[in-house]
Amino acid sequence: MNLRLPLTALLLSTALAAAGNWPQFRGPGGSGVSDETGLLARPVGVVERAASDAGLARLAELVAEHEAEVVVVGLPLTLRGEHGAQARETEAFVAVLQARLAVPVETYDERFTTALAQQTGGRAAEDAVAAAHLLQGWLERAR
User: Is residue 44 in a domain?
Assistant: First the structure.
C-alpha cells in the first residue's frame, strides 16, 4: 500500500456499559497517527467519551487535522480470536463513525495492545500508546 498522508487510529476502551449497546459506551479512546511515510506510528492523545456526540466530533476534527486517509479502530476480539459482545458493539460504533467521516473506517485486532502500552512506558497516556501500537501493527500488515 502506497501511503502518502498520515493515518489516524482510534483504540476504544473495552470498558463498555452493562446495558451492552454502544451508545451507552462513554469510555476514552486513545489515538495515534503515522508519519507521512506510513512506516511509524506515534501516540496523539485520548478522546474522552469517544462514542458521545462531542467525542465523535473530536474524532472528525482529528481526521481533518491529520489529513487521515483511513481510521483504524481497535476490535476487541476474545483471546480465541472470536467476535464476542464487545466486538459486536464496537462494530456498531464503527458503522456510526463511518457515517460521520469522509474516510474509510477499518477495524484491527486490538488484543494485547494495552499490555504492550504498559510495557512501553513514556509520558503519553496509556490508551494513546496502545493506539499507536495498534496502528503500527496495521501499518505493518498493510505493507
Answer: yes
Q: Count the domains in the chain.
A: 1
pLDDT in tens, the chain (143 residues): 444 444 555 444 433 333 334 444 456 778 888 887 778 888 888 888 787 888 889 889 988 888 888 888 888 888 898 988 888 888 888 898 899 999 889 888 888 777 777 788 788 887 788 888 888 888 888 77
Q: Does residue 19 belong to any structural domain of this protein?
A: yes
pTM: 0.79
Adjacency order of strands within the sheet including 71-75 = 41-47, 29-34, 8-12, 71-75, 105-109
User: Which residue segment(s) compose the domain that 109 sits in?
Assistant: 8-142
